[in-house]
Automatic annotation (TrEMBL):
The lineage of its organism: Bacteria, Pseudomonadati, Bacteroidota, Bacteroidia, Bacteroidales. Keywords: Flavoprotein, FMN, Oxidoreductase. This is Nitroreductase family protein. Its cofactor is FMN. PANTHER family: NAD(P)H NITROREDUCTASE YDGI-RELATED, NITROREDUCTASE. It comes from the Bacteria. Belongs to the nitroreductase family. Pfam families: Nitroreductase (PF00881). Residues 9-60, 93-152 form the Nitroreductase domain. Gene3D superfamilies: NADH Oxidase. InterPro entries: Nitroreductase (IPR029479), Nitroreductase-like (IPR000415).
């Protein structure tokens, strides 16, 4: 990417990936971005589980009723975990780390998609985080926030259409209640 603004405009969720693996160097760069993400009071409550094994990716892809099957086709899934005993803002800190992962992947020319796990369920109504915890022997004290699927893009999506920006959602000085009625 040439600059941050172009990175933001270009980053779109990718749901179809090629079979091409991600290089170890790319994985290291992505994980450095995750480990450098800001966290409240530098508590760094997050941890990351990297999954590249195709059989495990397929099993992981059943973590939700819908919206998670794309994991089976990615090259790398990063399970974003956090310890709520380390920080009361573990959700926020882990969310920041998740988007840092996605922005770094985009900067490397890779595609990614955030799969929400917290407060979601499998087809059999098992909590998604419980399904993932059992699949990978994750300790009980760690919460599962998300899975970030990463891979080489099978198709390019057009950049974000700036004409569709919802400027009415921005309030200056005080909240404008009249905008809610429009």
């Amino acid at each position: 990417m040439t600059d941050f603004q172009q990175l933001i405009i270009s980053r779109r969720s990718t749901r179809k990936f090629t079979e091409e693996p991600i290089s170890p160097e790319q994985v290291e760069i992505i994980m450095k971005a995750a480990l450098m993400s800001p966290a409240s009071k530098s508590a760094n409550p997050w941890q990351f589980l990297l999954v590249e094994d195709k059989e495990m990716l397929d099993k992981l892809s059943y973590c939700k009723k819908s919206g998670s099957r794309l994991i089976a086709g990615c090259a790398l899934a990063i399970v974003v975990l956090a310890d709520p005993l380390t920080s009361d803002v573990w959700i926020e800190d882990s969310s920041i780390a998740s988007i840092m992962i996605q922005l770094q992947a985009e900067d490397l020319g890779l595609g990614s998609c955030w799969i929400q796990v917290r407060e979601r369920y499998t087809m059999s109504d098992t909590p998604s985080d419980e399904y993932i915890r059992e699949l990978f022997d994750i300790p009980m004290q760690l919460q599962v926030l998300s899975v970030i699927a990463i891979g080489h893009k099978a198709q390019e999506r057009p950049p974000f259409d700036e004409e569709k920006l919802q400027w009415e959602k921005i309030h200056i000085g005080k909240f404008n209640i009249d905008q809610l009625a429009e």
